[in-house]
Amino acid sequence: MTDTASLPRRNGSAPALRLAKRVAGLALTLAATFLGLLAITFVIGRVIPIDPVLAVLGERATAEQYEAAREAMGLNQPLWVQFGLYVRDALSGDFGKSLVTAKPVLEDVARVFPATLELATIATIFGVLFGIPAGVIAATRPGSLADQLVRLIGLMGYSMPVFWLGLMGLLVFYGELGWVGGPGRLDTSYEFMYELDVPARTGMILIDTALAGQWEIFANALSHILLPAGVLGYYSMAYISRMTRSFMIDQLGQEYITTARVKGMPEWRVVWVHALRNVMVPLITVIALSYANLLEGSVLTETVFAWPGLGLYITHALFSADMAAVMGGTIVVGTVFILLNMLSDVLYRLIDPRARA
Amino acid sequence: MSLLEVENLRVTFATEAGPVEAVRGVSFRLDRERLGIVGESGSGKTMTGRSVLRLIRPPGRIEADRMAFGGVDLMRISEREMRALRGRRIAMVMQDPKFSLNPVMRVGAQLTEGLRLRDGMSAREARAKALEALEAVQIRDPERVLDAYPHELSGGMGQRVMIAMMLIPEPDLLIADEPTSALDVTVQAEVLRILDALVRERGMGLMFISHDLNLVARFCDRVLVMYRGRIVEEIEAQRLSQATHPYTQGLLGCLPKIGGARGPLPTLARDAAWSE
Predict the structure, then answer these.
(1) Which phi and psi angles does A147 have, rounded to 5°?
(2) What distance in Å separates residue A289's CA from the closest CA in chain B?
(3) ipTM score here?
(4) Sheet holding B173-177, edge to edge
(5) What is the pTM (predicted TM-score) of this model?
(6) Between chains, do A278 and B151 touch, taking CB under 8 Å as contact?
């Protein structure tokens, strides 16, 4: 029996090799998930009661035209060959042409997605910046006035319909007070300036104008995005603050918190350093999911604020039976989900050493 | 004047079904000695220990006529003064290092945060001091342990780290709350030996909370036996086998003995009168 204790040596491969293995594993998972996503959209595309040939040719096509088009679209081939073609096209970025805009779907999505990305990102930043502190403060004083207030704000966030809140926001802050810009991403006059003077690098107006140094347009875009981002951010905050509160209450009951207090650590450090780091582990997933939800494009918000984003695009496409556009949009949304899940996985490992082993 | 004097300590929890008294009027003194507190689960021994640190969370409430540590009445000082005492002069080792160490902080950061935050020590100084503390609890490669996370340590190592962390500020009183219950028997002996040596060398007072009668009899100078929030007997550890209180006798009677009778062990008899 020894009187000393030592750490077990890590057995197995060198760190570099382990990292390479992990990256390879991640890439494989990613590829498999993406293939699954394509399979699902493919199947949906085949089972919906819309004939893709008729959708392109119109009702009055002759039988010969119909057959020719069917062959050109590869629909006479066996199903698995069709799927192969579908995957090949998807990988080369070809999701077909939108019937409504007569442009390649990818081009359309590249135009509308940045609008949604911009909105969702600002909303999520808002939700995180206010939601986490609100949740922490509520958790440290359960039952207090602050806790009740956070709960009330959260409850309102859960129960008020977004179109109502959006309309009220427009009525008050745009219509009455004139503090913010109205619907759309820019005032009409600025839209032309933006088209002409600002090179479209990212499609996100705030970033593009900042890069071009066009601060006047930037300010106008900011005044337009504040209200919709605030409305979406409010929902995100309601969710994040609730989850933070419950995770934090759970962590504050843990024994390592007592240890920190025994060491004489001040309360702010116990809560904001010791406990919060542990709260971040599950919270990362919550934030990523809430962000992904917003990136789908919030149809109602985009409608109320006439925001030309992905949600509006997919909804329009759906109403006009523009299946190529719907499927293309679905694949984009699915890919965003996959990527965000992966990102949260990576962050999770960064924060929680136990997940790295 | 004793190091710690506790008079009529009460810990009450307000619940929806009315107040629950976990500790009901406990008085004792502790000098620079090893005082054992034994009792079954729920007898209030842990609550007694944590009361001394004033670390009972709401809805729990601590009341005492007097709880003097080094002549200072802990019931009358502010939270800030209490925090200063906690950091430097009173420390506590808890049951299971798996839970009592912060899982997402490196061991080194946890060992040195007191030195750096409270004593304003530089990173290098604090690290040197932490290394010294780990060597004192006989950890072989302290450099690597400092850079490890708690889940990479075994239970015995975790508890050594915990002891090192608590002894860095050289406290006058160490409360050890079941410090070896979560460890393997062989590791238990090592951890106890380390604890014992440190307490002797540094002349600290030790409050040793345990449900293990044999352990307490061997390890401590004096033993308090608690039952339902009260002290029912106080006795020299060596004379524990001659305890007079029926509850203590009952506890001793429940212990299996090697070479003893093979029949079922007696169940513990309880008498409502003992808790009055």
Answers:
(1) -60, -45
(2) 23
(3) 0.89
(4) B90-93, B173-177, B205-210, B34-38, B222-227, B230-236
(5) 0.85
(6) no
DSSP lists the bridge partners of residue B208 as B36, B176
Name the H helices within chain B: 45-52, 79-88, 97-100, 107-117, 123-136, 142-146, 155-167, 185-202, 213-219, 246-253
Rounded to whole angstroms, the Cα distance separating A19 from A163 reads: 47
- Topology given in CATH for the domain delimited by A105-355: MetI-like fold (1.10.3720)
Alpha-helix runs per DSSP H in B137-184: 142-146, 155-167
Helix axes A15-47, A323-351, angle to 10 degrees: 160
* Tokens encoding B34: 């090893």
- Ordered by where they begin, the domains of chain B are 1-89+218-276 (3.40.50.300)
CA B45/CA B232 separation, integer angstroms: 12
Query: From residue A225, how far is each of A105, A208, A214 by CA, in Å?
Result: 26, 15, 17
Write the CA distances from B6 to A22, A202, B25, B70, integer angstroms. Answer: 57, 70, 10, 12
One-letter amino acid at B27 equals S
Looking from the CA of B96 toward its CB, the CA atoms found within 13 Å total 7
pLDDT surpassing 90 at residue B195 = no
A315: CB partners within 8 A, 6+ apart: A299, A303
Would you call B237 an interface residue with chain A, using a CB distance cutoff of 8 Å?
no
B141/A260 touch (CB, cutoff 8 Å), yes or no? no
Cβ neighbours, 10 Å, residue A178: 10
Examine residue B59 and say whether the peptide bond preceding it is cis (omega within 30 degrees of 0).
yes
- For residue range B83-129, list pLDDT tens digits in order: 988 878 999 999 888 999 999 999 999 999 988 888 888 999 999 99
Q: How far is A38 from chain B (nearest CA, A)?
A: 38
- Rounded CA-CA distance B158/B164 in Å is 10
Instruction: Give me the residue spans of the domains in chain A.
Output: 17-91, 105-355
